[in-house]
Design goal:
Layout (H helix, E strand, L loop, with lengths): L16 H4 L2 E12 L5 E11 L14 H6 L5 E8 L5 E7 L5 E3 L5 E4 L2 E4 L2 E8 L1 H6 L8 E15 L7 H5 L5 E18 L2 E5 L1 H4 L1 E8 L6 E6 L1 E4 L10 E7 L2 E2 L2 E2 L3 E8 L2 E6 L8 E8 L3 E9 L3 E10 L4 E2 L15 E16 L2 E18 L4
Length: 377
Amino acid sequence: MIDHHDITRDEFMLHGPLSHHGYDWWWHSFTAQDAETGEDKPFFVEFFTCNPALAEDVPVLGQLPANQSSGKRPSYLMVKAGCWGDDHSQLHRFFAWKDVNIHGAAPYRIEAADCLASEDILRGSICISPEETAEHPEWMCDAGNLSWDLTVDKQIAFNVGYGASRPLRDAEAFAMYWHAEGMKTLYSGTVLWNGKKYNVVPEKSFGYADKNWGRDFTSPWVWLASSCLRSKKTGKMLENSVFDIGGGRPKIYFVPLDRRLLGAFCYEGKEYDFNFSHLWLNVKTKFSFEEREEEVIWHVCQENLHALMKTEIHCLKKDMLLVNYEAPDGSKKHNRLWNGGNGWGTVLLYDKENGQPVLIDEIEATHVGCEYGEYDQ
């Protein structure tokens, strides 16, 4: 069952070895509307934690030259927020662990100053001047002034099953874990971006919420998700549908597997499961990423014994970020990690009858969250 809510997977995971060499983050993305013009604007907010056992009185930043030369690894809470579009920006606000209050057990709650993330509340602010950005390249961010005050309603989950279960979490079998408690999420509230107000309305927020944790990232890194879907068969919006694709090249016990993705499509209540760890489904996946002069394109083909899904998503480079993260060991291997929130494209969904694909629907997807990157060689 894909849509199986489990907020224990949203718990704070940095215990034992991961407290010394691990990250854990909660990601939120959504669309808002300009309060004056009604124009759509996609935003994101993320609470990223790293190496709490290495805490000092100030945030320890891994890209600071003095820390790199001494081998000191990062340790902090980073509140990351920003937007996509012509004025795309990523803002980072760092907190020392002594200034963070965290309730790690379900339902989780993490708070520092005016920044708060929980299962149903998301609020905070970041204000960074151009001068600060120039003076602090180790912050890995842009300049801007963003604040948000939102409620969160996670409607449909993508539970990847045994791969992120407690036994495999406790064994730290995978380098990177994933759980999407809200692959379809309704957000409501307000956002202020550089003095302009945006309203967030549930039925127009097309929201998403997930989390990742582990000791390292994946390369390649793939993510595609949208709940703004229109059926070409009927011409109507699919009000109870969402798809989510993620992964790249997972590592189990430090051994990299072949290029593999986890995928799910909830189509008006019917579940289509393309999770490679569900061996009984015999899932097969092919994917590629194409970078053109003005846009980037994802091609994904996933099939199991019962169904087939072909996905093609586009996003304009001018609307996207090259999003920045450092790993728990202080390295920064992803330096061209494309990240967008207003992708568009098509999903072809098939059932199989006697082993042959039969088209169920051709679906137009917009407001697509999208990501792709590979480690520097």
